[in-house]
Amino acid sequence: MSDDNRKALIERSIPFLAEVRNRTAGDDLESWLNTAYGPDSELYQDLARLITIGVLEEGWAANVEVDGPRYRRSLIAEPSAQTHYFSITAVYMNSVERYRGQYHAHPYGEVNLVAPIDPQAQLAGPNGWQGPGWTAPAPGSHHYPEVRGGALIALFYLPAGRISYDIRPSRSATAAA
């Protein structure tokens, strides 16, 4: 397994993280990301290509099973000065039918690149279902990650690496299951 593509993904992420480090995740950032760095942009295409290689070809990303082979994740980089104190994580989810992953909270928000493997695959974001593009759950948000339409990779950047899996779902989140 080559480490070159993993390093390239981190290096490609650094200037992007420098650009978003002082922005707050939420609707405005999500809209800006999908306009400035949508699926036709060089940044999106580079990141999606590198993370897809890491998951599907080289096995260094999203290689830890959370719920069998259809729901996997892995930490690619810890928060550091180099990454502007963002962590970099990959999640692989695969289900044609709507599938829910592990409930979690974003204490400081999240910036998330959605890279479908299957053309119809979508990830549920705060503004609805997202195919190729970005989601940006706001600080304090919490949800089940959800996929439908096939396999996709979510490459997510967490300010200070903060994510909480020890939160209980709200009644409305549980009821929507």
Automatic annotation (TrEMBL):
Name of the protein in question: DUF4863 family protein
